[in-house]
Amino acid sequence: MASSKKIQIYGKTYSLKSSSSEVDAEEVAAYVDSRMKELANVRGKTSTLDLAILAALNIAQELMELKNQAGAKEEAEGEKLRQLVEALDKEL
Predict the structure, then answer these.
(1) Phi-psi group of 25: left, alpha or beta (phi > 0 → left; psi -120 to 50 → alpha; rest → beta)
(2) What pTM value is reported for the model?
(3) Average pLDDT over residues 9-13
(4) What is the DSSP string of 15-69?
(5) What is the domain extent for residue 19?
(6) pLDDT attached to residue 41
(7) What confidence tens digit (pLDDT) does each residue in 16-47 have?
(8) Phi, psi (degrees; rounded to nearest 5) at 20
(9) Rounded distance between C-alpha atoms, residue 20 and residue 83, angstroms
(10) Are 25 and 16 in contact (CB under 8 A)?
(11) Nearest-CA neighbor of 17 among 36, 30, 2?
(12) Residues in CB range of 9: below 8 A, 6 or more apart
């Protein structure tokens, strides 16, 4: 069931409906807010829209890196399982 929450990102309040039970909307908002503030500190005078786009790109890059790492880990675990099954088959 979707719940409506008020969140604040970079000084602006948004109403957000979230149906995720695994991820807290406030935690996500705080993460986006912190990324935008980090970029603002580095880039100086940059529009809020540009900061939001840059933050989105950085967060998307992090997500894709994590997906790639998870995929590689899953592949390695699958190979290890295959080797274990092969070793068990030889013993039986």
Answers:
(1) alpha
(2) 0.74
(3) 95
(4) EEEE--SSS-HHHHHHHHHHHHHHHHHHH-S--HHHHHHHHHHHHHHHHHHHHHH
(5) 3-91
(6) 95
(7) 887 777 888 899 999 999 999 999 999 988 99
(8) -80, 130
(9) 37
(10) yes
(11) 2
(12) 29, 32, 33, 36
CA angle 19, 54, 44 (to 5 degrees): 125
pLDDT at residue 82 greater than cutoff 60: yes
Question: For residue 8, which amino acid is it?
Answer: Q
How far apart, in whole angstroms, are the C-alpha atoms of residue 46 and residue 44? 6
| Model pLDDT, residue 1 | 55
Give the pLDDT of residue 42.
Answer: 93
Count of domains forming the chain:
1
Q: State the Cα–Cα distance between residues 24 and 41, nearest whole angstrom.
A: 26
